[in-house]
Specification:
262 residues, mainly alpha, 14 helices, 0% strand, elongated
Amino acid sequence: MIIMILCPVVGSLYFFSVNLVFRTIFRQEVDLADVVFSKERVKQHLKADEDRERNLVPMEEALAVSDKKNLRMLMLNVIRGDLKSSLESIALALNSEDSETSHYAASVLRDELNDFRVHVQDLYTDMKVEEQEQTEAETLLIDSMNPILRQKVFTGMEQIKFVHIMDEAAQSLYQKNPSSMTPKRYEAVCLQLIEQKEFEKASEWCERLAQMYPDELVSYTCQLKLFFMENDREHFFEALNKLKKSDVIIDNETLELIRVFS
């Protein structure tokens, strides 16, 4: 604007000539053939939601609070987060004295558990029609069921039903491709069966786990939990002594267990 006011003729000619040179000489298509966009080199740094994080407390403590406004805000924050890992906490809110909070919890649980039921049924149907070399349905069943079942949000009979489906999927996967049964999958099946007091089946999986992965910590911890639930003192301390003499790296939880029973 300053140039056009002070030098209206020369300024206009200058801008016109620059634009003309750009369009006729320097303008050309950009060749992006050699440009590679790699997501691996991109690191996103998201700003923490301080207001939301500051208001998060354990659901057990929040339910004891008489302030309905804060309780409802907490429930909404939980719903906005990872629902699949928060179902156990949401279930606690069903018994809240605040009707709106219990309504939030009931609606979320109903939708999530119904989605889970449909998902499991679809995978179970796929597992039944799979070819001998196919194991995708089995692995998806075990991996997707364990995070939900360990939160114990189903009634007793329905929980047992899903545990049996997981056991059946694991049996099928073990017969088709034993190497696909990772320590984590072994542990998931063992712990769910132990929780339902299916000790005979759990013992079978513990033995398979110990044979397949003798140097993994879970092969010892699953046996210890099984023997403890069975009240089998002899085998419990035998497995504990084997763990103490082994070269397996022990986590803090198992180390505390050894200190208690040593």
